[in-house]
Amino acid sequence: MIQIIFLLSLFLSISNASVQDFCVADIKGSDTPSGYPCKPASTVTSDDFAFEGLIAPGNITNIINAAVTPAFVAQFPAVNGLGLSAARLDLGPAGVIPLHTHPGASELLVVTQGHITAGFVSSANTVYIKTLKKGELMVFPQGLLHFQATAGKRNAVAFAVFSSASPGLQILDFALFASNFSTPLITKTTFLDPVLVKKLKSILGGSG
């Protein structure tokens, strides 16, 4: 009898334990390694947990003929602290998402329209490339350089899911040629011809 009473009291204490189910971000606060501060639970509504920002295609009228529309914590505060986020990729004919990394997350890509050639480079400098069709998936491990490009003459669409609410994004070409990274240093560290470096900087808007 004593054991039954003990088990019942233990069950009741566990069932009444406080659990924080979610932490919808207050993006007016500061982002930290552990995420944004939480909105007061009394102000959270069902609308906070739904996001319409990936319905419309992105604007692909640009130099890469492609667009990435994020649903990271800054756009979709409900993913705060949940260890996931998403993005939409739109690629026109000859579209490309250039070599880039997500320092904070691995990526799972799902193709929903057209064909996409995608790949990544491992830390052992092994290249893994696959052409994906509608319904197929590919994974890109955290921090590794990877890319996506249209395969064929039709537009392509894909959705990416990340293992972090803030996966981060750094595009290699933009880091080199859309920044103030000096031409002499780029030439020295990449072995590229300085004339080519200056040409790429003029195209992408870099200086130095």
TrEMBL record:
Transmembrane region(s): none
Binding site for Mn(2+): H100, H102, E107, H146
Top-level taxon of origin: Eukaryota
Domain Cupin type-1 per the UniProt entry, residue ranges: 52-198
GO cellular component: apoplast; extracellular matrix
Positions that bind oxalate: H102, E107
Signal sequence residues: 1-17
Stated name of the protein: Germin-like protein
